[in-house]
Specification:
The chain is built from nine helices and 17 strands. By secondary structure, the protein is an alpha+beta fold. It folds into four domains: 109 residues, DnaJ domain (Helix Hairpins), CATH 1.10.287.110; 81 residues, Urease metallochaperone UreE, N-terminal domain (HSP40/DNAj peptide-binding domain, Sandwich), CATH 2.60.260; 45 residues, no CATH class; 96 residues, HSP40/DNAj peptide-binding domain. The protein starts with 7 loop residues before the first helix and ends with a helix. The structure holds zinc ion (2 copies).
Length: 365
């Protein structure tokens, strides 16, 4: 039994009761800071020493059994040759993180880039390239179709770097443009040549200055305003899709999706593709019948017959094909006219006389 000298908790900067997740995160953070490939040459020596130290601390504290022994004051490695579980020397950061956090760790840049300033080109997964815009339309606009000025914001390739994210591209000096680097590594079994993606260029073979316009992302946002045709018959809640007007991404260009909302109308009610107009009718007209003018949805007026004795709430006319068109077939619904008998509240002397006479007639036995 040998007493260990180093305080692994202190090296990783975690409390003695730290969880596995805290230990992983602390190591990831320190590995980013001290990975020998990520420091300037004058700091290389210090980085190699620190990196070895944090790797050793992590290999012990991340293993429950070794951590238990360590907590008891026993050297968990027991001096065994090459016993370290994690020998990270000579590994790129990506490989290290994949080893710790498992496969599919490609998304780690998303998690760590903002926090730790890890600045390789971000890989987007399952990108939604569609842009959504809401538009309010009146019933008349829906019936006739309309042209609307639509403003939206979309992502486009950076015009300065053409989407590469770098300016003044040049062949990577570290790998000579191959994107891979080899390193000879001595182990207890002998020397091995390890090949891995070039840490300087990330495997692309080229480097350059980060683009000053897009900050290396390759994309910028642009404000767009354009007149777009909304076809007739698109109802509340339905969408109109314009291809090729959305965001630019790896899989091409997305769509602009306009969601239509219908403004409530004070004279017309819509029922599917039929439209109901409420006609105000006086008691005398209701009794005698006749002809009235009804506005249609194109801004015109249609003459319709009111039947004698029409009742309040009765739909007495159906104007075929004057409703909302179906955008696919062009077939239109109907315009229905509903009676609303309006009782006058203010009447002239003469009207009063006539109503009194009517009432007398009604009450005669
Ligand atoms: Zn750019
Ligand atoms: Zn390179």
């Amino acid at each position: 039994m040998r007493r260990t000298k180093k305080d692994y908790y202190e090296i990783l900067g975690v409390p003695r009761n730290a969880t596995k997740e805290q230990i992983d995160a602390a190591f990831a953070k320190l590995a980013m800071k001290w990975h020998p490939d990520r420091v300037p040459p004058e700091k290389k020596e210090e980085a190699e020493r620190r990196f070895k130290e944090i790797s050793e601390a992590y290999s012990v504290l991340s293993d429950p059994e070794k951590r238990r022994l360590y907590d008891m004051g026993v050297d968990p490695e027991g001096g065994a040759p090459g016993g370290a579980t994690y020998d990270f020397s000579g590994m790129g950061l990506e490989e290290i993180f994949e080893r710790i956090f498992g496969r599919g760790f490609g998304g780690f840049e998303d998690i760590f880039s903002d926090v730790f300033g890890f600045h390789r080109r971000r890989v987007e997964r399952e990108e939604d390239l569609d842009v959504y815009v809401d538009v309010n339309l009146s019933l008349e606009e829906i019936v006739r179709g309309t042209v609307k000025r639509i403003g939206y914001r979309r992502r486009v390739l950076c015009p300065r770097c053409g989407g590469a994210g770098v300016e003044n591209p040049r062949v990577c000096g570290t790998c000579g443009g191959t994107g891979r680097v080899r390193r000879q590594q001595g182990t207890i079994f002998g020397f091995f040549v390890i090949e891995r993606p070039c840490p300087t260029c990330g495997g692309t073979g080229t480097t350059g200055d980060r683009c000053t316009r897009c900050g290396g992302k390759g994309y910028v946002y642009e404000e767009v305003e354009e007149d777009l045709e909304i076809p007739a018959g698109v109802l509340d809640g339905q969408k109109v899709v314009y291809r090729g007007r959305g965001h630019v991404g790896r899989s091409g260009r997305g769509r602009l999706v306009i969601r239509v909302h219908e403004k409530p109308h004070n004279r017309f009610k819509r029922r599917e593709r039929d439209v109901i107009y409420t006609a105000e009718i006086s008691p005398a007209r209701a009794v005698l019948g006749g002809e009235i003018g009804v506005p249609d949805l194109e801004g015109g007026v249609v003459k319709v017959k009111v039947p004698r004795g029409v009742q309040h709430g009765e739909v007495f006319t159906r104007l075929k094909g004057r409703g909302v068109p179906d955008p696919k077939t062009g077939k239109r619904g109907d315009l229905l006219v509903e009676a609303r008998i309006r009782i006058p509240t203010e009447i002239s002397k003469r009207e009063r006389k006539l109503y009194e006479e009517l009432l007398k007639l009604e009450e005669q036995p």
